[in-house]
Amino acid sequence: MLYFLGQLGESLTAFNVFRYVTFRTAGAVVTALFFVFMFGPGMIALLRLKQGRGQPIREDGPAGHLLTKKGTPTMGGLMILSGAVLSTLLWSNLANGYVWVVLFVTIGFGAIGFYDDYLKVKRMSHKGFGGRQRLLIEAIIGLIACYAISRLSEPAYATSLLFPFVKGLAWNMGYFFIVLGGFVIMAAGNSVNLTDGLDGLAIVPVMVAAACFALIAYLVGSVTFSDYLLLNYTPGTAELSVVCGALIGAGLGFLWFNAPPAQIFMGDTGSLALGGALGTIAVATKHEIVLAIIGGLFVLETVSVIVQVASFRLTGKRVFRMAPIHHHFEALGWTESQVVIRFWIISFVLALIGLSSLKLR
Q: In which domain, by residue range, is 223 found?
């Protein structure tokens, strides 16, 4: 919305700053952060009043959680989504199709997560929305988003999977790329959802990934930088840096209230939406594989669950003491803070490896 003030730059030079993606990205960070700071306490109080006993705690999880986390309200993702969406609408170029595609997935996945959280609180059970139904709706949203992205992208790479670390290596997958892209979006949403199990564990890696993709979107959306770094030039994707900035600002605000001991949990409302947003941005910028590197912590959490379930069904034995893997380390005797901070360190290291793909070709 404020982007259009840049048109006044022809007569008033001071308004030229609204044309710059970097300035509007910074504005999006500050706006989302301020919004969550201002309205977060009120949202928490309202959710605590409406939910009563708060989010139901898994009985098969760490025993200590039944004591330390009982009564904490969920659906804190509403704080993140409201701040991020408002900030995006305020600072981004609303004529950019990529922005609307990301918002479509973010809000759509957020709505699925909200309904799941609602059912859990209403039934006082950790079992919410049916898994198959949820995945089906996520798949439909992801496929629609990827089809739209393929129409917005340059024809040369519209349906191609690009490989990092190798100059010009691309695989034109045709319409199967839409299926792959939909899977990436679904996988990203659900992997962040699985990671969200300890105070502050998911939100910091999400912000790290959002910061990385703010840079990636800016570079691939620039003719000059993409040519210098031998990246695929994707016109219009630079605007997604503003969306990433909004996610970072809202995430920072939420972390203030989610820091241990958490006053509120993000719930599926936030985790599904944030993961879906990151997955969509990765597909739009043609960096799906890089997302798997930068978001390697989310991949690890997901794989740990898959391995645990498969092993138990096939052999009757568990590979980990508990899954997802962050609970395994808790069972080994790590404190919650140790798990969270060490996993943050892993996410930072993986982010650096992922960003190295921008230059190592």
A: 2-66+75-356
